[in-house]
Design a protein that fits this description.
The strands form two sheets. Strands 3-2-1-4-5-6 form a six-stranded parallel sheet, sandwiched between helices. A three-stranded mixed sheet has the order 7-8-9. The protein is α/β, with parallel strands linked by helices. Bound molecules: nicotinamide-adenine-dinucleotide. Nicotinamide-adenine-dinucleotide (NAD) binds next to α4, β7 and α6.
């Protein structure tokens, strides 16, 4: 299949690479020339703008870091909306259902179908092709896309309603955000009382406290103190805020999620948007006066 791909970052690059390796023909674009060069070396064609991508292919995928970037790339001047061949815009980014519906409406005016396809599973999942891929949009477009999406992970059809896959993704990410800070608090509490954090994580992973932070994030990035899991704090906070806005617009209050959201606002203030989201533990350690993963002196 001929595929356009815009946004070759931590997720986009390995996803695009897998598509090329599976035999698809890619036309790629990113603001960063070095990211484009990596894909060109693997056989992709470079395009100079989103519209240039959309002039060359019917299906354009995007993996972008903010709502504004998705809006601009899809519907801005020189965006996908100006392309001559494009029929569908597939957004792998997490933008929330309101932005997805807005982009859907703007593209529909030019007979371009907008399809939500947010993903979960991190950089590791993107590299291995084991992402959870949540798709909403017209069933016929889903059927046309599915063979390509199968290459990047397990594909779920969420529904035809625009934005519904985004709602699914926000529910998932709120749980991931909660797991990260709740596990940090639990481990910091144990360390403060003298427990070994590595033993704690082993016990939790064999017990009922098991979650994605204890299973993946602590062993890979927190205990070794590398803080390099591959998901930025700014992106996590974007998703937490989007989930809380989504709940509000549905007339719901989410008590646990709101507490989690307040904690993530402290984390982004202390650690910065560019930090890896596993650094969430640092302000919690600081407040407790302990460091997790370091041997106790004496
Ligand atoms: P990233 O910042 O690493 O990559 C974004 C890429 O988009 C960069 O290469 C950037 O140069 C490019 N870009 C930005 N604006 C652009 C524009 N206007 N035109 C062209 N290129 C532009 O982000 P990421 O971690 O790959 O995340 C991408 C999306 O996937 C986000 O919505 C994020 O929430 C979601 N996501 C990320 C992860 C993860 O673990 N990193 C997991 C699941 C979902």
């Amino acid at each position: 299949m001929d595929i356009g791909f815009i946004g070759l970052g931590k997720m986009g690059l390995p996803i695009a690479r897998r598509l090329i390796e599976a035999g698809h023909t890619l036309v790629v674009h990113d603001r960063r020339a070095e990211a484009v060069d990596k894909l060109v070396a693997l056989g992709a064609r470079a395009a100079k703008s989103p519209a240039d991508v959309a002039d060359q292919v019917e299906t354009v995928l995007a993996s972008l870091p903010s709502l504004q970037a998705s809006l601009e790339v899809a519907t801005g001047k020189g965006g996908v909306i100006d392309g001559k061949r494009v029929k569908r815009f597939v957004d792998l980014s997490t933008v929330g259902s309101h932005m997805a519906v807005r982009i859907h409406g703007l593209l529909a005016k030019r007979n371009i179908v907008q399809i939500d396809s947010p993903v979960s599973g991190g950089v590791g999942g993107a590299e291995k092709g084991t992402l959870a891929v949540m798709v909403s949009g017209p069933r016929a477009d889903f059927d046309a896309l599915k063979p390509a999406l199968d290459v990047i992970g397990k594909v779920f059809f969420i529904g035809e309603k625009p934005g519904s896959a985004q709602t699914m993704k926000l529910a998932n990410n709120m749980l991931s955000a909660t797991a990260m800070v709740a596990t940090s608090e639990a481990v910091v509490m144990g360390v403060k009382s003298g427990l070994d954090p590595a033993v704690m994580i082993d016990v939790i992973n064999s017990g009922s406290g098991l979650n994605t932070a204890s299973r993946d994030k602590f062993p890979k990035s927190v205990l070794p103190r590398t803080f390099d899991f591959g998901f930025a704090t700014g992106l996590m906070v974007k998703d937490v805020r989007l989930c809380l806005e989504e709940a509000k617009s549905l007339g719901l209050s989410m008590e646990v999620a709101e507490a989690v959201g307040r904690l993530w606002e402290v984390i982004i203030r202390e650690m910065g948007a560019e930090s890896d989201f596993t650094s969430a533990i640092k302000p919690i350690e600081q407040a407790a006066g302990v460091v997790v993963g370091k041997k106790k002196a004496g």
